[in-house]
Amino acid sequence: MKIYRFLIIVAIALLTTNSCKTDVELQTGEIKIIDLAGAVGGGKEVKISEVADDIKYVALETTDSSLIGMGAKVITGNDRIYVRSRNSTFYDFKVFDLNGKYLFTFNRTGRGTEEYSAMSQIEIDPVTGGFMVFDMMPLITNNSLSSWFFKMYDKNGNYLKNIDVPQINDGRLEFVKRLNENLFVSSVGSSSKEPLKIHGAAFDSLSNIVYEIPLAAIPEYATKESYVESIGIGITTSEGKRYSTYPPSIRPFKNIVRFVNIYNDTIFTLDQSLNYFPSFVINYENYANTSLDRSGITHIKGKHITLDPLSYVESNRFILMNFIMRDYAHEPYDEYIQGKNRVVTVPRTNCYGIYDKQTGFFNLMNQPVKGKLGFREDLKNGPPFIPAHISKDDFASALFSAVQIIEHAEVYEVKGELKEIVSKLKDTDNPVVAIAKFK
């Protein structure tokens, strides 16, 4: 495994050049190994009581104004519950207090100077509790693209200002996260006209680049060129040769960010002092994604394991990651997805893994219920729990539809406030949020 050994050497070299680390890294002074290879072939059922002190359930208020749409995702923080979902042709955020009372809907789609197009990426501002909107439709001046920017809104959804996204020589910065009042970080987009020299950048509120994120190593087979012709709004451009960039996913953790890449086994960290260093290495060994022959590989078949970077969530003590196990799945299952006119059965080999930063142990998580991933919820006897988001103060949140809760309670004897919620819940009601306080 030449790639793996090379990354370890690079990681050690980088570690020695950075003196400022997070509390977790300072505890050991070394790069931590997440031993995926050692866990393959077995698993462990993990109870929520092993990782959390408590879990509570919050029924989101159901009104004509607060109805949650399709593809709902939940985020907790800033004493609020934010639910992103799709309604008609656009996404919006419904905002609730921690008791589930509906506050307002954030949706500023339109053509005005304080509005954004429906093709926009919306982030919760971790500093203010407001909103950051990266508009995928750039300003066009004199039949050419003039700038990329994102809009800032306060916690009540009021427009504040635009911030230009800095231009780089090769590629384009697209996915913006906020580190503090005056510092933002962004990775590059998925393609570039020239081979990349960096994988992202940190910049200040005046759009000055203050740090460039180094390129992460990718396997040989992932390097691809293509020829693309594109037609833009109001302009026609022949793009010519394009290069796939394979950018890392930026995963915020407290006051730092992690960089997680599907093609790289090392998880890097950028802190607020602009120290960039490796923190974790996933030990894939013979399960690494290295074959030059890509024929016959699907999400359920193949001789390698892949991490889904977007599944990465982290608390002060634990890291949770979703792996596509393919031929090495010890608990393959079927997912049933409601289509327009019928239920579609989709085979899956996904399996979550949990890494304990305190002990160094890594386990693949067995399904507490066949076909359901996550922790066995043994505190209130609720549905299997896997957090979509973990806040800075270690509150992990997951969203369940009213139907999911009702059907679960028909089989299992739920307890506490969940039992009371079920007694009043209708299948047309808004979802229920589960919030666990991680240890």
The amount of helix comes to 10-25%
Global shape: globular
Radius of gyration: 22 Å
- What's the average pLDDT? 87
Tell me the β content.
35-45%
Biggest beta sheet attributes: 5 strands, mixed
Q: Tally the helices: what do you get? A: 5
Report the count of strand segments. 32
Strand ordering within the main sheet: 1-23-22-21-20
Question: What's the N-to-C terminus distance?
Answer: 36 Å
SS-based class:
mainly beta
Which ranges are low-confidence, i.e. pLDDT below 50, for 5 or more consecutive residues?
1-28, 141-146, 230-236
What does this structure look like?
The chain is mainly beta and 439 residues long. It is 10% helix and 43% strand. It is built from 5 helices and 32 strands. The strands form 9 sheets. The protein has a 5-stranded mixed sheet, covered by helices on one side.
Attribute tags:
single chain; 439 residues; mainly beta; 5-stranded mixed sheet; 4-stranded antiparallel sheet; 5 helices; disordered N terminus
